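quick one before i forget lol
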Amino acid sequence: MAHIFSEPSRTFSEYLLVPGYSSCDCTPANVSLKTPLVKYKKGEEPALSMNIPMVSAIMQAVSDDKLAVALAKEGGVAFIYGSQSIESQAAMVARVKSYKAGFVVSDSNISPDATLDDILALKEKTGHSTVAVTADGTPNGKLLGIVASRDYRVSRMTGEEKVRDFMTPIDKLVTAPASTTLKEANDIIWDNKINSLPILDDQGRLMYMVFRKDYDAHKASPLELLDSQKRYVVGAGINTRDYAERVPALIDAGVDVLCIDSSEGFSEWQKITLKWIRDHYGDRVKVGAGNVVDGEGFRFLAECGADFIKVGIGGGSICITREQKGIGRGQATALIDVCEERNRYFEETGVYIPVCSDGGTVHDYHVTLALAMGADFIMLGRYFARFDEAPSNKVRINGSYMKEYWGEGSARARNWQRYDLGGDKKLSFEEGVDSYVPYAGSLKDNVGLTLSKVRSTMCNCGALTIPELQQKAKLTVVSSTSIVEGGAHDVVLKDKTPYVSSSIH
């Protein structure tokens, strides 16, 4: 006979946190959101940690190189989507890794034979007024000069003038060698009263640009997540089909962490994939796996060698797996079950495997609930899809700005590898929808708002760290009338505009 769980499977919205004692030290400014990204042994530090408990979903509409840089600046990690060619995904990873904190690979480059019209067209395309003039017009060519807005006057020129005739030549530029640190580069900029500093190799080829304006930006991102070489940390999604070709390419590109992107992690396919990675790279390549919804699934992937494990099936805002297949579990119940097994595994083996809550996060406070229930970090799709940095198009629908958002199981994505169980591809059917989400502006502003709520709630629970929250948190199941009571009720609101910022996923 089938096993039937006696308790209902619950969602985050069915729980509330009960406040605990908070001392005078419990202020949001004192809260640390640092959290492990990959497994580690008791008494040791994880090889990778994050400064905020947020990662982006492995989705075409969410995670590209632009969002990866923006999220790393805030202290989280983006997993660049895998439903694209190996070459394209590796190139995205490489662009993130080349975006060295403070050291920018020039995206505005031109040859000396180009014209002013070419400069203006390039400025229109990139939005940048500083253009590097290299011998071959490439980002890493031999630097011959710089063109800045001060070097030309459109009103007094025809547009056909050659770049070589009005650029600031190399012999009049201040440059620095490859060994220059960011602090030294900024000192050179300030001492010489310049706006940009080219970093050259020993053969005069352009490596990076350091800009005066980026100094302030760097100071404004104190939690930015960097590797040992001061490059932004980035992840990438892989599947259980072409891993033998995709994984080496991503490693060569500099990826920091991988994640098997699948709707169902309790499968031999993931076991085979993890074994191949361990056989070829040992433990130096970090890879997460999932998704699972119970302790048995967690134990399976833990013993297969996963570095972190994702929890959640069918809870995403554009996921219709439960509707189509009747498979899944309420996110709160699934997370609690898996985290209990994670703790048992830690007691037995001394190995702590981080848990990622993926799906079911509807409101900002659900992030705090997920952390209290045992999650080490949260994977978000819709949340990030709303922002400027997400790769989807911004469109105007019925007078409001929206961003396109579609599931990896939709016909638009055609990412059948994520839902693939083998067999005839003709059997594929949709497990996701194509939709719009309200446009919300910049990632930085919205992440800051969400995390301010998380920090404030943690203080209400008397916790200054995520492990302390997990230890001290008191959770209560709420009734349907408690949920109604929790919102504005029995009043006529002056402003009928919905609280958009409170709904995230």
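fyi The chain has a mean pLDDT of 89.
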